[in-house]
Amino acid sequence: MPALESISGVRVSASPEALDAAPWPAPAVVLRFAPDDLFVIGATGIDVADEHAIVAEETGFVGAWLTPDELAERVIPHIEWPLPDARPALGQGFIAGVPCKLWLSDDRALLLCPAPYAHELAERLR
Amino acid sequence: MSPVGRIVVDGHPIPFESGDSVAMAVMRAGEHPHHGGTICLAGDCGNCVAQVNGVAYVRTCQTPARPGLVIQRHPALEAPPLPNLPQADLTDSRPAPSIGVRREDADVVVIGAGDSGIAAAAAAQRRGRQVTVLDARDGMEVVAIYAGLTVVVRTPDGMLHVHAHDVVVATGAAELHPVCPGNSLVGLVTVRAAQQLHAAGMDLGIAVAIGSVPSGVPCKSVPGRLIRIEGDGRVSGVVTADEDGSGRERTTPCDTVILGLGRAARDVLARMAMDLPVTVVGPAAEAFPLPASPTAGTVCPCSRVTVDDLESVWDRGFRELELIKRASLTGLGTCQGGACLPHVRAFIAHRADRIPDPFTARPASRQITLAEAAAGVHVDAFRRTPLHDEHIALGARMDRFGAWWRPWHYGDHVSEYWAVREAVSLGDVSTLGKLVVSGPDVVEFLERLYPTYVADIRIGRSRYALLLNERGHLIDDGMICREAEARFVLTFTSAGAENAEMWMRDWIDTWSLRVHVMDRTGSLAAINVTGPLAGQLLERVGLAAQPRFLQHVQAEVAGVPCHVMRLSFTGEMSFELHHSVDRSVELWRALMAHGQDLGIAPHGLQALHGLRLEKGNVIVGMDSELDSTPRRLGMEWAVKMEKADFVGRSALARTAGLPDDRRLVGLTMPGSAPTEGHPIWSGGEVVGHVASSFTSPLLGHAVMLGWLKRAPFPDRVEVDGRTASVVRPPFYDPEGIRARA
After folding, report:
1. Pick from A52, A59, A120: CB nearest B381
2. What is the reported pLDDT for B92?
3. Out of B384, B386, B516, whose CB is closest to A52?
4. How many angstroms separate the CA atoms of B407 and A95, rounded?
5. Is B46 within 8 Å of B178 (Cβ atoms)?
6. Is B120 helix (H, G, I), strand (E, B) or coil?
7. What's the total number of domains in chain A?
8. B712 prior amide bond cis, ω within 30
């Protein structure tokens, strides 16, 4: 299991229409937490057509990039909710009792959790 | 057949043969796995339960014998003794051995691999469904069905949770146990059990069959109605009555009585899943005829409830099955009604002229250990601030508060207290809830949400605010900081942030307002720099233009971009430095280094609780109760009833005219502080309790916040056998001069 490391980027809370229309820097990984809330990994600035958007540098997550084998062996046994079938996709829920997000693509996955839970998650997935 | 190994029963090794269950091996040795009662060998009753490898109440008929198993039979008439554990060390947090959990998905789960189960599985497979068949005889004991659907299974390798689209219960039928005098003797078996024992090569001695006769088992069929079973510990004969109308009794000597008295649906899982989309097939779904109403003997062998006991509760007026169950304890034992339920229903049907439905079944249908029940369940995850390791390095004793690990003290909370009052101190307040709200309707939203005015808060200023629910009860508190015309930063208590966010989002949706919310609690750390020398310290690290009381600015502190909020919880000059979590250690160390000659020291929660108590500052959840209104808390100053509306306003208006029957007050008395929770006495009666207490080093006496719950409120009370004065807080710097310095 790779170590959990800080995953930084930009967090945006804005109208769903503005987020839908925003041009994201390729090949950024864009995690849509909710219709009005997303996290762009690795980005440093965002242009969103919503004058009231909340745009903040986000350093409050830790995560690990996983191979399909690591995902299957170390993480999936701790998940009680059904994984999405589509790829790429974002799953959100408790993993080993810790609130997490799991971004899934065809060849890798990103396990993400709020930084204050990093220690708990690492210990529980050890 | 010949023995293939030995198990240890009550300290004596006994052999077992291939395919033996523990119960069968014990019976092969001429013993009873318990101390008497009908043996079914089907897992339907509690007559074979024993302690297996230290685990009590194990159904030994369902436990394969294997070398080295240690069996301790339960006492004949009592519950098994609790294990004699050494004194537990509650501070030892080593994890206990855990039971693993596997999780699987299935289109269809079929419970039971009998005829009806196999047919149901085959039918589902023909429809292209992926089917999982679970049968206790294969070691897959289903103990629960939950909504979801989730089927919980105990397996030899741990627990299995199967998430299924459809569940078919095909658990078959159980054989009826006899209820008559002598039904607790050794030597009683059901028809199926007799067949199993015979097939295993066991000699049943002189065997007689009552009711249906097991095919292939040497026995004598005895006609008539079962009256009683005779014997002294073991069966010596069976008494039946002719059914020709004469009622004549006859006694048949025997060693074993084989009982073919009928069947009952084995439907505990079906009843457990009554409100779920579960299909029940085969005998488990059948309505078998009830046995005759019992007249004497033990009805519930698990709880040792007799017919006399049932009649006693019936005579006391308990006429419903669920009530009779609770009053007599029948059906509450190991087999969860497997043996007794048909007889109890017959007992009621005979007297009430109606057949009651079976009682409710709940997980677990079979005895599981706490470790098995807890398998896959995680204890609450507690968060760490980015300064956690700094606290440890400084000798902090960490503890859990409001879902976070926080420093309780760094060795001497009194020294920490003095650092705040006389010098400068750092407190880690990263745990505070921090939400950003923005949008064209944000002012309207906050005006509706908070009982204080929001629109008149100027950019760069902040205001303390209560958060109330619709009943006017306090649910949280914090600061409202205006960053721009349509953008605010809101703070909440450490324990209340998540609820506050949900609360706000609910109201935004309810009111259809255009407001964005972003929770920054986990993204921003915060350090409280507090004490009379706080300003001096911050000047050293680059904050020359410092905000005045209740102002806030964006500024660099020791090179770290911070949102600096000037406020005070400790009663001294205080600056909260909100900053990115990845810069927190750097900022903390810089402040500590630059404050050495100023007497800087970190303070933990123990000191903080005392400092804020001297100021009379309330901690939500510690000093407040679930129904605490601002009036009861003495915080009406924080509520602007002249506002047109806010959440909780109508409730506060309605209750304003009611008598003031509860009040949070300040208390002082000489000497040291009593523990929190201490009763408050007046006139020989308890009139309240202490919510917070602290022995003030500065004031030299005890200060407290306490609830008085009986009007008229006295001026003097007794706490801990001492006289305490009821006073109006704050106890320290009532003008707030030091905080505003």
Report:
1. A120
2. 55
3. B516
4. 27
5. no
6. helix
7. 1
8. yes
Q: pLDDT per residue over B202-224, tens digit each?
A: 999 999 999 999 999 999 999 99
Average pLDDT value for residue range B405-428: 98
Instruction: With beta carbons under 8 A apart, name residues in chain A contacting B381.
Output: 97-99, 117, 120-121
ipTM, 2 decimals? 0.97
Tell me whether A33 touches chain B (CB under 8 Å): no
| Residue-range domains of chain B with CATH | 3-73 (3.10.20.30), 99-174+264-289+370-378 (3.50.50.60), 178-260 (3.50.50.60), 291-354 (1.10.10.1100), 382-432+523-627 (3.30.1360.120), 433-520+633-657 (3.30.70.1400), 659-741 (2.40.30.110)
The pLDDT tens digits of the residues spanning B463-498 come to 999 999 999 999 999 999 999 999 999 999 999 989
Query: Would you call A59 an interface residue with chain B, using a CB distance cutoff of 8 Å?
Result: yes
**What pLDDT score was predicted for residue B293?**
97
Chain A positions in Cβ-Cβ contact with residue B104 (cut-off 8 Å): none
* Residue B677 DSSP code: T
Mark yes or no for CB contact B516/A14 under 8 Å.
Answer: yes
pLDDT tens, residue by residue, B25-34: 999 999 999 9
Integer angstrom CA distances of residue A31 from A19, A28, A50, B712, B725: 11, 9, 19, 59, 58
Write down how long chain B is.
741
Mutation for testing the A interface, residue in B94, B581, B585, B586 having most A CBs under 10 Å? B581
Alpha-carbon gap: A105 to the closest alpha carbon of chain B (Å): 21
Task: Please tell me whether the overall predicted TM-score, pTM, comes out greater than 0.80 for this model.
Answer: no
Contacts A121 to B, Cβ<8 Å: 381
Share of chain B above pLDDT 70, in %: 98
**What is the span of the domain harbouring residue A112?**
5-124
